[in-house]
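Schema walk-through. Below, the input block comes first and the output block second. Nothing else is stored per chain. Lengths vary across the set, and this one has 303 residues.
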Amino acid sequence: MLRIKRRFLAGVICFGLVLPACGSPTATDSPETLPLQVGAIPDQDPEKVQRRYQALADYLSETLEVPVNFQPVTDYTAAVIAFKVGDLDLVWFGGLTGVQARLQVPGAEAIAQRDIDAQFHSVFIANTNSGLEEITSVEGLEALKGHSLTFGSEASTSGRLMPQHFLQQGGVTLEDFQGEPGFSGNHDATIKLVEAGTYEVGALNEQVWLSRVEDGSVDLERVQVIWRTPAYYDYHWVINPQVSDRYGEDFFKKVQAAFLALDPSVPEHQEILELFSAEQFIETENGNYADIEAIGREIGKIQ
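--- output ---
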């Protein structure tokens, strides 16, 4: 029995000595070896999302001199939850999800957005067999009454929140549509559903629409833009305050500077900017999304 106890004790000591060498994080690990976990709302086709963020992760890892992992999430809500519980350090959010996340993580900061995000737009598209024609004002949205409509994700700023806001401004409620509005899940799916005639009308991110038209993946004989919304703030990078504990108090600024340093004259940088449909990234701050927060509370997406 004594021999068994000695063997057990020796095994415990050996396990304790070997475990740190196996790469598991411990209190003695250097903070710089811990990866920065990057995520994003899945607002487009998964293949396009993966390509975009892998290129960015490689750039950030080299620039910040820390390992960077891109962690896909299943939906918009999952991105907010992962940020809240600390599984994600840096996330590309839409206007609404960014506000939702920051309200749940004191000290979280909006640090960068694309040049286009300070003046962002949604578009309403329609199947060409719907009989709908171009709309030239908010008031003209009344022409959509009696038609079927799909949004994107329920938590999408450009695919749900702002389109619903402008519909309300035009005197149109969700009850005015034929059946209940659908939620496609992402902007690419919205285009395909309207193109197929599953829904007569869809609301989505203008940049996704323009990109798909440019790459020839939209059948313009079956679907067309009928209205462009007024401008609003939308997508932005939000950083979790926990990174200061791992990488130092100035890490916020280092990450922000990495985005601002993306230069279209550098081929590797240009590839990343093109994947984000941007000319450059610019600074932003939490206060820019006050209107988004107010509208979110108005329609019940923020409590």
